[in-house]
Design goal:
Elements (H helix, E strand, L loop, with lengths): L2 H13 L4 E10 L9 E5 L4 E4 L4 H14 L5 E7 L14 E9 L4 H8 L5 E5 L7 E6 L2 E5 L7 H13 L4 E5 L2 E7 L5 E5 L3 H12 L3 E6 L15 E4 L15 E5 L4 H11 L6 E4 L3 H13 L4 H4 L2 E2 L11 H18 L9 E3 L2 E3 L1
Parallel strand pairs: 11-12, 11-14, 12-13, 14-15, 15-16
Antiparallel strand pairs: 1-2, 1-5, 2-3, 4-5, 6-7, 6-10, 7-8, 9-10, 17-18
Helix pairs in contact: 1-3, 5-9
Length: 357
């Protein structure tokens, strides 16, 4: 579950008058299943959760603790030393994890609604155990929402901005005498699926569960609809020749071209190469891909531009079924998102000049 989704759920619960607990991993050392920035929502008296802070015995203990705090509005910091022996029920990681547990009532609704929009900004949490949660949402220098009457100075904002730039998923820092956990609230990157067939159906499910937003574009309303893609963030029915009129593909977008045929693939790919998308991938055999590349060269598309394209698409997993192929594609998206284009993991990609494995 992505962070905007957790905040959206939290806002809906607060609006309904329910108290919630938000658990955030704010620091780790050594090996830990929960990573900094992991979040979990605890609600329904401690009987329901959304998200994760690492799972296992530690998470179960945190859920119980958070559930007990739901009768008040407060915050606490929990620290766990993870076991180093096989019979330690906390695990054998040998690391440590620190979590901030905050409980909220309806007075925090505005802040949770603001964060759930996924707009760029910085969320600042004051680490102040046994006190009501102090959270501030800033967009550039503008105060968007807060749960307490605090406003960082311009100097503090610069320090916080630098910390978030270096660690967008979150980091603990000290500023103006306060212990803070600061994180980016920018929306998760968008996977834009061109084509709404069987493969896209599975890609959308995997991509959503991996923390991407999903947009679906197809000419056929019987395929591109909310019944087939209930969790898609955007669904567009339109002409493939007019892709750029409907969706702006920027550096936070991952374009996946899986239309019903090679002609449509070529039409979309030509337009996609004019964007700044972080990733452009196209389904198809090596022969089909080389043919489309030759056609685009004839239209003036350079080899340098074509070298951006991942085709055939996906990591080399030996995938056969639609589900496996979809998984290999989403694995490739995650790899590019987390490690970048040049990391040494085998792709099934044809370079502009030939086949590269």
């Amino acid at each position: 579950m992505d962070r905007p989704g957790i905040f959206e759920k939290a806002a809906s619960l607060l609006e309904a008058g329910e108290k919630i607990a938000l658990v955030t991993v704010i620091a780790t050392s050594g090996s830990s299943p929960g990573k900094v920035g992991y979040k979990m929502l605890v609600y329904a008296g401690g009987n329901e959760t959304l998200g994760t802070v690492g799972g296992g015995f530690v998470e179960a203990e945190v859920v119980g603790h958070a559930g007990n705090l739901l009768t008040e509005v407060t915050s606490q910091v929990l620290q766990f030393e993870l076991g180093e022996t096989p019979d330690d029920e906390k695990g054998i990681c040998g690391g440590a994890v620190e979590m901030l547990v905050e409980t909220f009532d309806e007075t925090a609704l505005l802040l949770f609604e603001a964060v759930s929009t996924g707009k760029g900004g910085m969320l600042i949490s004051v680490v102040s155990p046994d006190q009501p949660p102090k959270k501030v949402l800033l967009n550039d220098d503008e105060l968007i929402a807060a749960t307490a009457n605090i406003r960082p100075s311009p100097k503090a904002v610069e320090i916080i901005r630098q910390a978030v730039a270096e660690n967008p998923r979150g980091t603990r820092t000290t500023c103006e005498g306060m212990e803070l956990f600061v994180e980016s609230t920018a929306a998760c990157p968008m996977v834009v699926l061109f084509g709404a067939g069987h493969l896209s159906y599975h890609i959308a499910r995997y991509a959503k569960s991996a923390g991407f937003r999903v947009a679906v574009f197809d000419e056929r309303s019987e395929y591109a609809n909310r019944d087939r893609f209930p969790d898609a963030d955007e669904i567009v029915v339109g002409d493939f020749s007019k892709v750029s009129e409907h969706i702006h593909e920027d550096i936070d977008s991952y374009i996946v071209i899986v239309t019903r045929g090679h002609k449509c693939d070529e039409i979309v790919l030509e337009q996609a190469l004019g964007t700044d998308a972080a990733y452009i991938g196209m389904i198809g055999s090596k022969r089909k891909t080389l043919t489309i590349f030759d056609n685009l060269r004839a239209k003036g598309i350079t080899d340098q531009a074509l070298s951006r394209v991942y085709a055939p698409i996906g990591l080399s997993l030996g995938a056969i079924t639609p589900e496996e192929i979809a998984l290999s594609i989403v694995c490739e998206l995650v790899k590019i998102r987390r490690l970048g284009r040049d990391h040494d993991i085998r792709h099934m990609t044809i370079s502009a000049g030939g086949i590269a494995q």
